[in-house]
Structures are given as structure tokens and as C-alpha cells.
Write a structure and sequence with these properties.
With 161 residues, this protein is α+β, with helices and mostly antiparallel strands. It has one domain: CBS-domain. The chain contains six helices and five strands. The radius of gyration is 23 Å and the shape is elongated. The model has no long low-confidence stretch (mean pLDDT 87).
Length: 161
């Protein structure tokens, strides 16, 4: 199974925003669509970053710490490009699922954009990979069970020889 197979199973296109969008707008969008990542693109629709709940939590924690120290930062004026991961790990559509699993494990990112010529084809999440692996395992189990049921019966002549 390849990344392209995982993307083919997805029901929705990736959600995108421009880097100058407000973080508050991104958070509302993520909440409304019940998603964990937003692809950040430029005016030519090319990938410039990823915003995930990880980056949102980091900025919230940073602002909370600043608030405790007497500073009064405002969340409403933060733009996505101040918070996004501007060097996200990417994948390509021909990458095999085991290589993808290794890559996700090594980089620690839960959402990887699949990119071709700078354009985002889709986003593969850790959940997508788990679902795809279950699908592969279910198919393999079905094939093994069918094979075992068709196992030729022994005629008894080679037993205990």
C-alpha cells in the first residue's frame, strides 16, 4: 500500500489557509470541521507550512506563561505564519506505507502533507495510517483463512514416517 492509496480513501480535500490568516480564524475552522491540521499555502497554492493542534497548544501555553508574568498579550492578533510549522515533514504519493510509518515515527509529526511539485495532494494523518494498516491486515487475514480452508487433506500415508 502506498500514500496514494491512503489519500484515495479520504472523503475530504485538505483544509487550507493563507499565512496571513488570523490564528483565531484557524482555530474556529479546525473546531468546526473537527480536524487536527490546516495546510498553509501561498497565493500560488504551494505549501508554506502546517498548522496543527500542537502549534496551537504551544502558543496558548506561551501566552499563558506571559500572562502570569504580568504581560497581557492578545490572542486575537496572532497570525498563522507566527505559529505554523514552516518546515513540515512531507511525503510523496509513491511512498510505501511502511516507509511512511517509519518517517512519521522518526519526525514525531502526526500530519504529513503529500506534496508533488510544491502542490499539496492531501494530508496523511497518523489515524489514516492506522486505518489503512487495519484494512491491509483484514485483507491478509481473509486471504490466509481462505488458503487454510483450501488446504489439501492428508491421505495419512506420510504420518509418523
Amino acid at each position: 500500500m502506498k500514500v496514494s492509496d491512503i489519500l484515495a480513501l479520504q472523503k475530504f480535500e485538505p483544509v487550507t489557509l493563507l499565512p496571513e490568516a488570523l490564528l483565531s480564524e484557524a482555530v474556529v475552522l479546525m473546531s468546526e470541521k473537527d480536524i487536527g491540521s490546516v495546510v498553509i499555502i501561498n497565493n500560488e497554492n504551494k505549501l508554506v507550512g502546517m498548522l496543527t493542534f500542537r502549534e496551537v497548544i504551544r502558543i496558548l501555553a506561551k501566552r499563558q506563561i506571559e500572562n502570569r508574568s504580568g504581560k497581557t498579550p492578545t490572542m486575537s492578533l496572532i497570525t498563522v505564519d507566527e505559529v505554523m510549522n514552516d518546515k513540515p515533514t512531507t511525503t510523496e504519493k509513491n511512498m510505501e506505507i511502511n516507509a511512511l510509518r517509519r518517517l512519521m515515527n522518526d519526525c514525531g509529526e502526526r500530519y504529513l502533507p503529500c506534496v508533488e511539485n510544491g502542490m499539496v495532494l492531501g494530508v496523511v494523518s497518523f489515524h489514516d495510517v492506522a486505518r489503512a494498516m487495519l484494512k491491509v491486515q483484514d485483507f491478509e487475514n481473509k486471504m490466509l483463512k481462505a488458503y487454510i480452508q483450501d488446504w489439501p487433506e492428508s491421505d495419512g500415508s506420510s504420518e509418523n514416517s
